[in-house]
Model the fold of this input.
Amino acid sequence: MLRRLQNRSRAVLNSYRSTVDVLAGAPVELAYVSDGDANGVFYYIGTNGLRDAWTNPHTAGRITASASPSIIQGSIEELVDRTNNTVHTGQNFNSNYFRFDLGASRTLLLKSFSWRQRSDSGDTQPISLYVYGSNDASNWYLINKYNTGSKSVTGYALTGGTASLWNNVTVAAPGTYRYIQFYSNVNNINAGYLTAGEVELYGTLYVT
Done:
C-alpha cells in the first residue's frame, strides 16, 4: 500500500512538473505551416498550451486585443476567433492600429504573422503597415515596415483586392515583446481605415 501511494505521488509530481514546463519553462516554437493552421500564438494561448479545448483567447481573458480608433463594424474579439469576419476601425490617418497584449507572463519573438482580408470586400486592405513591439505599451520599437509602393506611402505591402485572402509575412523582430501592434495610415482605396478578417502571430513564445 505504501509503495502504491509513493508511486502515485511520484506520478502526480511528474505531471505537475510537466504542466509547469508547458506554462513557464522552455520557450515554445510556434511556426507557420498553412493559412488558418493550429500552430500560431493565439491558438496556443487559446488552448492553454495545447492542453484544453480551444476558446477565444480575448474573451477568455488570456490576451487583450484593442484598436484605435474605435471599431465601427464587427468586434475586436473577432480578430482572433478563427473565423473570417470584418473588423473595421473608424477613419484616422494618423492613429489606426490593432494591438495585442499577450499578458504579463508572456513575451514573443515575432517571426511571422498572418493577416486575412475582411470577409465582405477586397477594399480597405492596408497598403501601408508598420509592425511594432513593446513591453510597457508606452515605448514602441519598429519591427518591420512594408509598402506596395503604389500610393507614395512607406509601409507594408499586403496582397489585397480579394475578400478573405490570407497573407503570411516573415519578419525579423529585434527583441521579445509583450505587446504587438499593427499600425497603418492608408489602405488600397486611399482612406484612413484599418480592417482585417483575422490575425495570427508566429514565433518563439516565452512564458515566465
User: Anything to note?
Assistant: The chain has one domain: 28-207.
